[in-house]
# Entry
Amino acid sequence: MTTVPHLRTEIPGPRSRELHAQREAAVASGFGITLPVFIERAGTSTLEDVDGNTLIDLASGIAVTSVGAANPVVRAEVAAQLDRFTHTCFMVTEYEGFVRVAEWLNEHTPGDFDKRTALFSTGAEAVENAVKIARAHTGRPAVLVIDEAYHGRSLLTMAMTAKEHPYKTGFGPFPEAVVRAPNANPLRGQGADAALAEIERLIAEHGPEHFAALVVEPIQGEGGFVVPAPGFLPGLRRITDAYGIVLVVDEIQSGLGRTGMLFASAHEGVAGDITLTAKALGGGLPLSAVTGRADIMDAAHPGGLGGTYAGNPLACAAALAVFEVLDDPGLLPGVTGIERSIRRHLEPLVDELAVVAEVRGRGAMMAVEFADPGTLAPRSDLAQRVAAACHAAGVIALTCGTHGNVIRLLPPLVIEEAVLEAGLDILTASIRTVVAEEAAA
Ligand SMILES: *Cc1c(COP(=O)(O)O)cnc(C)c1O
# Structure
């Protein structure tokens, strides 16, 4: 492999600029853009653009291409399915791939109980359907969600998402019966006990018979890669058990090996009544799943769930290939190795630079937060400039956080060690440069 990143032009290059101008004339401007570079092909953990630049991918298309964006097993399985047929609609005639994906998820999601799975296409659809199922099961209306949560862009999931801009501004009114509960964010001094007590209070205030479901990300994604204070997830399990509320664990970003275990909730020994997957599930093809206790899942009447493309055959074929990669016993230890490399590069910066507030995360879901020392006032300006410096140097890094002051790392789980090292060297150098420029200004 030639050394990466390999840059032949500035980023974005001339051909990308030309295409981006065409995009602006053709595509609705509501779509944001992290890095206006057009991609031609992918390697294991690199993306080659239309100007011949090879970029290091520390984003995986937002935690989707965990097995790489050009995985040969995914390509072979999808190509074979493409030769057979592309679609029947699972509600019209059946195909085996749908059943095999459901079986794998029933077996591997947390919880030692009888399960059923429903497949859809997007993460937001999975969240919406989990709420439908929880309502059908409990006969109750409302959903408890957590501060800083992200659950999608559809009307219900927008309401469940915390951050106003850009997700919600101008798009209301929103569905009712969404109640927001506090987070247990250790950096900001929000411990598990205080958050759980407040959640108990909210449930008492509205009455337990008000709540069908509590939906929680075991590690928050868009909200800032917040790993909840220890005890928070087990506490939510206890509370939901006590009041007959369905615990829905949104593993759409954190699941399927991302954190070094198959599911992030397993780090705390917690099993949701329902576990949601999407993103990495389809290996780059649109696929999402709701997997849960059989009696809860089957509360929805026949015909009540579905969708034209739900569990598309090509996406199911891709998922079965993803499962083959996940079943490789070397994979999860490799993810733990990614965490070690990231910590080795980034953790020294916490002592070295006052504005580097924290390095956190698990496995290949790691983040660095920028905030003023003492006040912890978010410094999105620094995160944005670090991301821009990485992009210019050929490394695709994403920001996140309610205040946009967090850089998040989501490399493919199969990233080669040398590529990861090169990417992290550029990231740490970018952080040092941006902070030094700031001090000089
Ligand atoms: C991305 C995401 C969603 C929404 O998934 P889409 O496929 O974009 O609809 C929901 N929950 C979490 C935690 C996510 O990261």
User: Anything to note?
Assistant: The pocket of pyridoxal-5'-phosphate is lined by residues 122-124, 127, 150-152, 217, 221, 250, 252-253, 278-279 (CB under 6 Å). Residues 417-440 form the longest helix (24 residues).
